[in-house]
Amino acid sequence: MWARPNGYPMFRGTHGDFDVVVHVVDVPLSGITEVRGIRCTTPVRTVIDVASSLSPAGVRSMVTSGLQQLLLTGPELRD
């Protein structure tokens, strides 16, 4: 286990045949979902978390992709 620059811990592990990096942070329950048995952040929460580390073009691309794949909705982004 090691800490990222923001102080939150993370560690490497496995889930079945997959290597994973687990990031530990306090997230409200509304921002958590489960995909194939793995707890993870919802798509909209991921956009919020990652947006500050991307360029404006990167954020637009991520949001556009999420909308096209029906992972995000306009109302959800506005909230």
* Strand arrangement across the biggest beta sheet: 1-2-3
Total number of beta strands: 5
Average of the residue pLDDT scores = 85
Oligomer: single chain
The description of the largest β-sheet is: 3 strands, antiparallel
Topology as a string of helices (H) and strands (E): EEEEEHHH
Describe this structure in words.
The protein is α+β, with helices and mostly antiparallel strands and 79 residues long. It has helices spanning 43-51, 56-68, 74-78, and strands at 2-3, 9-15, 18-23, 32-35, 38-41. The chain is built from three helices and five strands, in the order βββββααα. The strands form two sheets. It has a three-stranded antiparallel sheet with strand order 1-2-3, with no helix packed on it. The chain has a two-stranded antiparallel ribbon with strand order 4-5. Strand 1 and strand 2 form a beta hairpin. The longest helix has 13 residues, at 56-68. The protein is globular. The chain starts with a strand and ends with a helix. The mean pLDDT is 85.
